[in-house]
Amino acid sequence: MNRIMSIALKGERIAVRAAAAGLAMMLCTAAANAQTVVKWLHLETDPRYVAIWNDIAKKYEADHPNVDIQMQFLENEAFKAKLPTLLQSPDAPHIFYTWGGGVLKQQAETGSLMDLTAAMKAKDNTWEKSYNPAAVQGLTFNDKIWAVPMKMGTVSFFYNKNLFTKAGIDATGIKTWNNFLDTVKKIKAAGIVPIAGGGGEKWPLHFYWSYLVMRDGGKSVFTAAKNGEGNGFLDPAIIKAGDQLAELGALEPFQPGYLGTTWPQALGLFGDGKAAIILGFENTDANQRNNAGDGKGLAPENIGRFAFPVVEGGAGAATDTLGGLNGWAVSKDAPPEAIDFLAYLTNADNERLMAKAGMLIPVAIGAEDGVVNPLVHESAQQLATSTWHQNFFDQELGPSVGRVVNDVAVEITSGQMKSQEGAQMIQDAFELEKF
């Protein structure tokens, strides 16, 4: 009997040990399969581009089986409205889209973001140096890097070659602001609308004022103004820029009713051949086709491009560019895997892949050859040699001051406000924002 009990007890101990071993194996397997989730919030609506990102994420996951990249989407306006609350919640995205500028700076000041300086400068700055320096600088505040660059764009003039020929104009001769004003006069004299204007949304006209500020004052004047130094936005160079914008407006260069015209309508006007010039983004070729009445627009070979001209005697250079600067910010509690994935997402190979798809002008050095559209390639070449790339003023200065900038640009262009008055309004809004 005792022997039988002994055998039974021994069997029970073996069973317990086997169960324990099985449990340990399950725990080890679970640990091996445990994944770090990286939440990636974007606002891209084009399914082709989302598919490219998804493929890149899957390739990363294949090499990093312990990482789960979860793509999340918010529509543009919902993104702007909800992001501030999300960043203060347990559901904060680890990686999210940013336009840079004042909004990014405010997010950094609230403590919502991770300072990426150390990570990007590690290993002899090789990560930081893999991007266009102007792109990194544009996402840097107080000597700290707050976002990883993704793409750049630049605003420049696009023109209808046939209409220029009809007006007897050689675009290669447009080097200065006075050259440009003379061009507008000649086009108008030929019975052609010189410029397609989108005054209804205001921001398209702020491009003119911004570029003139850059060409008249150079980087030092605008940097001082946005930092609250010197004469601020009452600097003589800034007031002169407003005077020059008023001079353009007095020529009545835009189509009738331009103050109520939306940006898509302005693109359609240019695409329909009803205006000779438009000041637009690097993807103007595609956008004018999409908004043209026939859905075809101008043939690519009928579209030319030239940079915003210099101002005679101004401190700015023709190689100073104005345009978008977009990247990926990282929330303060993001795991290290989020940073590693961003380095992968924005490397030269993946940026080249995105550029070939027409998704962006890359910021990764060496990826410029991915841009295949000739007009976009011209913009990419200009950006590659940019001496100062300035984010859109209405983005750079934050939403409150940015709205005033857009309002002032329209009022000055339409002759409803003097330059001095406009500069004072921007300065007042800037000082109010500080408090």
TrEMBL record:
Its main location: periplasm. SUPFAM superfamilies: Periplasmic binding protein-like II (SSF53850). It holds the Pfam family SBP_bac_1. Residues 1-34 form the signal peptide. It comes from the Bacteria. It is found in: Periplasm. Keywords: Periplasm, Signal. InterPro entries: Bact_solute-bd_prot1 (IPR050490), SBP (IPR006059). One of its GO terms (cellular component) is periplasmic space. This is Raffinose/stachyose/melibiose transport system substrate-binding protein. Belongs to the bacterial solute-binding protein 1 family. Coiled coil: none annotated.
